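Archive entry. Fields below.
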Amino acid sequence: MSNGVFDDVQVIPPAEVDDVELYHAHSFITKYVFSQDAKIIAIQYSATAITIGLVGLVLSWLMRLQLGFPDTFSFISPDQYYQFVTMHGMIMVIYLLTALFLGGFGNYLIPLMVGARDMVFPYLNMLSYWIYLLAVLILTASFFVPGGASGAGWTLYPPQAILPGTPGVEWGIILMLVSLVLFIIGFTMGGLNYVVTVLQARTRGMTLMRLPLTVWGIFVATILALLAFPALFVGGVMMLLDRVIGTSFFMPEIIQAGELLGTDSGSPLLFQHLFWFFGHPEVYIVALPAFGIVSDVISTHARKNIFGYRMMVWAIVGIGGLSFIVWAHHMYVSGMNPYFGFFFATTTLIIAVPTALKVYNWVLTLWKGNIHMTIPMLFCVAFILTFLNGGLTGLFLGNVVVAVPLSDTMFVVAHFHMVMGVAPILVIFAAIYHWFPKMSGRMLHEGWGQFHFWVTFLGSYLIYFPMHYLGFVGVPRRYYEIGETSFVPPSAATLNEFITIMVLIVGFAQVVFIINILVSIFKGKESGPNPWNATTLEWQTETTPPSHGNFGDELPVVYRWAYAYSVPGVDADFVPQNMHPDDVKGSGSADDPSGHH
Amino acid sequence: MVLAVALIVLTVGSVIFHFWSPWWWTPIASNWGSIDNALLITFWITGVVYVAVLFFTAYCLYKFRYRADRRADYEPENTKLELWLSGLTALGVVALLTPGLIAWNEFVTVPENAVEMEVLGKQWAWSYRLPGKDGKLGTTKTKLVTDDNPFGINPKDPNGKDDILIEGENLHLPLGQPVKMLLRSTDVLHDFYVPEFRAKMDLVPGMVTYFWITPTRTGTFDVLCAELCGVNHYGMRSNVTVDDKAAYQKWLGKQKTFAALYPKAAAGEQLAAVRKDSKSKQSVQ
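PREDICTED_STRUCTURE:
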């Protein structure tokens, strides 16, 4: 009755290649600074991403202060406002979310979860981090150069991005583009590592269809990134050439301030196509790892197998594929040929089907579970709500004609913050509360976690749900102030004040979270190796935190899928992936076909 | 338990907010009621799904909360259920897409009797150009733009001489007349945005974009820029007034033509001067 996915296998064929000898670091510097251990690199990536993410968070406070209380803060000029908007967006999307999910969780979890000793190219992996750090430093430096950071909006649309009239045109935009190019180079080094490790370094018995969904999510997201980032790379290089040596890739004839620039025949729309050919897959580069992590965390804490594993895998692959043919839904009012609208609206709404299926399957995993309301589970449920909300408003913006009145309004801001700001960040929190015990051997403080969760979840909802309605009213995004209009009622100003106050409160909760991490590393309750009674390999390591090489003398052998929770006929409510079928205690074995239906 | 209650409260609260908050779209002033309808259909379908999924989630959280004496069910998959759910979702998608694409087809099909008008955006002001008695707009070139020829109208094109130019003042539109708005920028991206018209479109330097509307209600409405165009993006404002036919004709009669406003440029005398200017290179610092 074995279908090869859900049932135990008795015999695993011997390994075809010998275990590899790892590079052994001997000094503090090679162990913890220029480290080639994926787990250390993961922590370096995470710490850097969270640090620059905090800068992005502070920028959002400044922006919201201006929007909530215009004419109040003399230190926020229009120039600075647009610089805050631009840097906030770029930092959050690229340098926080992409780096944390792939560089952070990818590095930590892939080798452990597939049963490998390390990434297959450890030296390249180390380089990847250091280039990422350099990219972050260059980006940060742009705050301090003459003219300051770029204020072109995170989409960096030319010609505006490289012309006077936009802040940061002197140096900010150059540093921004150089930093992006470096980020992509660094990412490519890491990304090749993740893909090859998943394909080549899985332990015995770990078939692709026995991979935890976390690995599937990160794996497919990495493939997307390897295919999508080159579009941004060439777009960035071309814009650098336009800005520095006066080429006209994106620059048509332009008269600015009465002066004819020497540019000719370039296409501003070309940049938008390149940007969004990267930019839309980027949404899924962030979302797919989140989908995977949520699946695993929900399953573990509900003590129930993920519902519809195979469909979940195909949904991840399908969404990944479709994400490459929907990009121009970001350009419905860009002036491109309007007939494109038919195609891109259709492809975009088709994505709703596999995406909705994932939401159903998460909820159906809760159905008839035995749900522990742990902090990771709380964050996962909050993710389901915010992701559902953001996904549904995506149906407004994907459906070309409905998108037209809402384009470039606060509705768009509310939508993408809900779906790719709040939702993935809630997953990051779930993941940190879930895996922190493995990384540190200690638990995060439960009470502070509760406070962090409730303030973050309810606060974020109160920020972004009403914001959609500002968009309905017609309030445009990227406005330093709305000023006098005939259509925005005074009550909208009150709503803006409320949103700003909520932003500051939610921001404060993140400070509590950071303190929780810093204190718990040293003083947290000891967790033991497997505090959640989880099945996947990272919880079965000999030492916690896992030592260099992850596993002991012998690599684990995998006999079953990652979701053997509450299997009928087994005493324990979980069976680790690497437990030999003969060692599973209970009245019947886990592959008892009567247990399935 | 607490979370289940929180989900219910948030869901119900969101529905109440939707129906009772003071923030809703502006009364429509154009023919794009089909956009509003597609939007309302989207609201109903997504709203029902939102409430249903969240209520079901809250029920699961309550009903299947941890109890030491219970064990979770074990059901790896249920292909039939998954296919049903996918099928229903696909139906929902079709229900959304159909009215959307029908309206879009209308959006991209400019009626034959539409009058052409031009919106010109430059950092950070709006100007407008209407065809003169010949009903045709003259051709333009960005290269020809000077203080004396702010629209860059080609003086060799006879259609351009009687074009009516409106700078620093309201645009007026005749009630009930389909208008094809031709959109042109000479510097960076802008977006001609009148909330009450629903339709909007970017202005892209180097090309002419368009959309069409039929104004259906008289009144004066705000024109805003909806595509980030530099540091004074938020200050790039104008107004558009929809008049009945008589008032429109009266207003139109007072407007001046290219030839009247800029006689030298219209006669072609500025061409030589412009050519000299064009040698100046892009200078940023």
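CURATOR_NOTE: The mean pLDDT of chain A is 94.
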